[in-house]
Amino acid sequence: LLSAYQHFWHDRPMDVVVPVPLFERRLRKRGFNQVYLAIRHWENQNWQGALPALPMLARDALRRKRSTPPQTGLGRRDRMQNVKDAFEVSVSHSIIKKRILLVDDVYTTGATVSECTRILLKEGAEAVDILTLARAM
After folding, report:
1. C-alpha–C-alpha distance, residues 24 and 42, integer Å
2. Any residues with CB less than 8 A from the CB of 131 and at least 6 apart, and which?
3. pTM score
């Protein structure tokens, strides 16, 4: 993911990187957020001189405010309905007038990242770009 960021955003670095959150109960049950694990090292390194400059990691800027059933097996329309209004900005000062890099593990129909993007823009983000580890085919 870091290599992809450096390759595709070298000429337009983002301000903040936000992982797609899990609902609190699912996070407690699983014990980790797989998206956060994939990018957590971005905040603990000395990246001076890295091109592009690495964005600040805002782990808790976005919150899943309600539990949603897994998206597996759902069609596009059902996926969109499943995640509608499931997210909220919990730390608004970290996203207002900022260019956000939203990170998710798998992009299937785009329902989750579309809903997260809608909320981030509604709450004042300047722009939202998406980076995912995999694309379902």
Report:
1. 23
2. 1, 4, 5, 8, 101, 102, 103, 104
3. 0.82
